[in-house]
Write a structure and sequence with these properties.
Blueprint: E1 8-10, E2 19-23, H1 28-39, E3 44-48, H2 54-68, E4 76-79, E5 83-86, H3 90-98
Parallel strand pairs: 2-3
Antiparallel strand pairs: 1-3, 2-4, 4-5
Length: 99
């Protein structure tokens, strides 16, 4: 989504959706969300926004808020460029990504 940041890509056999995750490296919910994606074999890319310069982090948060009209908290997942998952509630992630 943002060509000015470097995402970490994780390959997996499930490529049904285009999944981008904005996470914090110290966030337990973020770690569980990324582990869920990996455990389910869902191909995705992610970035730890707390490890990039503050001005870039703020630019990403502002753009996500503007595009999706959602409060940005982490993890913040963008599915297929149009659906969001905010926070990690496994049933919601499972329903959106596996059903």
């Amino acid at each position: 989504m943002f060509d000015y940041v470097e995402y970490t890509s994780v390959d997996g056999p499930n490529k049904k959706h285009d999944v981008e995750v904005y996470a914090l490296s110290t966030c337990g919910f973020c770690k569980r969300a990324l582990a869920f994606l990996k455990d389910q074999g869902i191909a995705h890319r992610y970035i730890h926004v707390d490890l990039i310069p503050l001005e870039v982090k703020n630019k990403i948060k502002e753009a996500l808020h503007e595009q999706f009209k959602e409060h940005v908290s982490f993890p913040f997942a963008v599915i297929d460029g149009k659906t969001t998952l905010i926070g990690f509630l496994e049933p919601d992630w499972r329903k959106t990504l596996l059903d």
